[in-house]
Design goal:
Layout lengths: L2 H49 L4 H26 L4 H18 L1 H16 L7 E4 L2 E8 L3 E5 L5 E5 H6 L3 E2 L6 E10 L4 H13 L12 E8 L2 E10 L4 H18 L6 E2 L10
Antiparallel strand pairs: 1-2, 1-5, 2-3, 3-4, 6-8, 6-9, 7-8
């Protein structure tokens, strides 16, 4: 390359720089301000949704959706400022979107699953659910995933597509859950006396046990010379394990206080119509 060619190239680079530098600077400024405005708008929308009393599940889902849509619009605007034809850009974006969509069919299924979950509401934020081998409280419903907090205080991410197509057990729908406890006691102990003692010393003395539905103590069966008792109590779903363990301890203390032999755990198979 001779001196004239080099000089010509430098002049072209200078012209391009002078022409595009303001555009590039303006585009960067618009990008920064645009993303800042998007965050402000999303915060305002969140506050408006809260004031209107919308379900927190919808709040999280639509906040994520609006955030992504507005940022895409900002990027398209910035592309137009630096000289990229937006019509071509949109066409390329559409083609790329189709290709990505085919490659990420699972993600699209998760998005569709999220829409179905919000539409039919098999659960909402704060519910205690079990599905896909996981159990926990719903902390967030996002665009692609539902986030649970399990009893071990671990965070579990479950794809919405899997949840929308799977069996879901919602322990919070009715506002209470039944705790089943089964014991076997000696046949020499009168079941009626045991029932009265448990009702007085356990059910009425333990405030986490709900009065309605009514807790109960019943004779389930007689096995190997022992009487099998089944105890049903109801509580708030979030108190399940507290009620399970403490009721067991209180029943044991009740037997000791009445000079009865300590009851032993019993395995009981309930019929489907009972459960």
């Amino acid at each position: 390359m001779n001196t004239d060619q080099l000089s010509g190239s430098m002049e072209q680079i200078k012209v391009i720089f002078i022409d595009y530098a303001p555009r590039l600077a303006g585009a960067i400024l618009v990008l920064i301000i645009g993303f800042w405005l998007v965050n402000r708008i999303c915060n305002m929308i969140n506050k408006a949704i809260l004031r209107r009393g919308w379900d927190i599940s919808l709040q999280t889902f639509f906040a994520d959706l609006i955030n992504i849509a507005l940022k895409v619009l900002v990027l398209i605007s910035v592309a137009g400022m630096i000289g990229i034809q937006t019509t071509s850009f949109v066409a390329i974006l559409g083609a790329a979107g189709l290709a990505v969509g085919l490659a990420l069919q699972g993600s699209l299924a998760n998005f569709a699953g999220g829409v179905l979950i919000l539409a039919f509401k098999p659960y909402k934020v704060g519910d205690l659910i079990e599905s896909n081998g996981e159990f926990g409280e719903v902390s967030q419903i996002q665009i692609f995933n539902t986030i649970l907090t399990n009893p071990d205080n671990k965070t579990v991410f479950i794809p919405n597509g899997a949840l929308a197509a799977a069996k879901i057990i919602n322990y919070s729908t009715l506002g209470n859950i039944r705790v089943n406890l089964n014991f076997q006691i000696e046949t020499s102990i009168n079941p009626q006396l045991v029932r009265e003692a448990i009702e007085k010393e356990v059910f009425k003395a333990f405030d986490l046990i709900l009065e309605i539905p009514t807790p109960s103590v019943n004779v389930f069966s007689y096995v190997n010379g022992m009487t099998v008792l089944t105890v049903h109590v109801y509580c708030d779903p979030t108190h399940y394990w507290s009620v399970y363990y403490q009721t067991t301890e209180r029943i044991r203390a009740c037997f000791i206080a009445n000079n009865w032999s300590i009851p032993m755990p019993a395995s009981v198979q309930y019929s489907k119509h009972v459960e």
